[in-house]
Amino acid sequence: MRIDGQSALVTGGGSGLGEAVARALAGQGARVAVLDLNAEGAQRVADEIAGLACIGDVASEQDVSAALEGVAGAHGPARLVVSCAGIGTAGRTLGRDGPMPLTDFERVLRVNLVGTFNVLRLAAERMAALDPEEDGARGAIVNTASVAAFDGQIGQAAYAASKGGIVSMALPIAREFARFGIRVNTIAPGIFLTPLLQGLPEEAQQSLAAGIPFPSRLGDPAEFADAVLFCLRNDYLNGEVIRLDGATRLTPK
Q: The Ketoreductase domain covers which part of the protein (predicted)?
């Protein structure tokens, strides 16, 4: 699907991987809306790319619906949707103080998995009602999982489960949406230099990078954004999960 001139929505676009995606899409001529719970971050990125800032919780039907309506009013209905919003909370299932609080597990699943599904279902509803383009396409969606979905570490049960759910729903939803001309793909990034990791000491960053076969460094968010552009542009890529990790495999801990 072409990117130039299209209306796009990026969740989690106020920082990190989402910000890189929002900037990349705008650089390719898309009219981008940034949805983030962090109002300041969303507004900053939107201002810098001449886009639209939308504030809200991805797991809220009301917030996401309002964002999609706002996008449609400002830029036209979104045909490109990229979900990058997520949280990464660590905690052992059975720790020194007993079992993990169920609310902690539910919170991670709510934001990462339910939030991704919520954005996908509401965006697809609107895409399905659009006139198809010349190739029959009505839209393209890219979701963000993690390599933790495949080799999650100790303490990542909630995070791995949430990202594993995103991986598992990629194919069935792509098959379901085929009749509408809507593609769904997923990227599973490894260890990227996001604001969270930038706050770590240089020694800690180098230690993480040393475990990555090649290139032995942390991923650049721009590389993630480039993979998103590929997923959106390549019309034959559908229902796929792409690991973007420098061939790393997470150790148990």
A: 6-190
Token pair of 122 as six digits: 């509401």
CATH superfamily, with its number, for domain 7-244: NAD(P)-binding Rossmann-like Domain (3.40.50.720)
- Residues with Cβ within 8 Å of residue 183, at least 6 apart in sequence: 1, 137, 139, 140, 141, 174, 177, 235, 237, 238, 239
Amino acid at 13: G
Q: Is 223 exposed, middle or buried (0-12, 13-18, 19+ CB in 10 A)?
A: middle
* Residue 91 DSSP class: -
Q: What pLDDT digit, counting tens, does each position of 140-187 carry?
A: 999 999 999 999 989 999 999 999 999 999 999 999 999 999 999 999
Contact criterion met (CB below 8 Å) for 53 and 46 = yes
Q: At what angle do helices 16-27 and 221-233 cross, to 10 degrees?
A: 50
As a whole number of angstroms, the distance between CA 220 and CA 116 comes to 23
Percent of the chain scoring above 90 in pLDDT: 88
Report yes or no on whether pTM surpasses 0.90.
Answer: yes
Answer whether 178's CB lies under 8 Å from 238's CB.
yes
Domain ranges in the chain are 7-244
Altogether, the residues listed in the chain come to a count of: 253
Q: Which residue, among 111, 115, 124, 41, has the nearest Cα to 80 in the 3D structure?
A: 124
Q: Which helix (H) or strand (E) holds 61?
A: helix 61-75
Please give the positions annotated as active site: 159
Q: For residue 109, how many other CB atoms are within 10 A of its CB? A: 17
CB atoms within 10 A of CB 218: 20
What letter does residue 219 receive in the DSSP assignment?
A: B
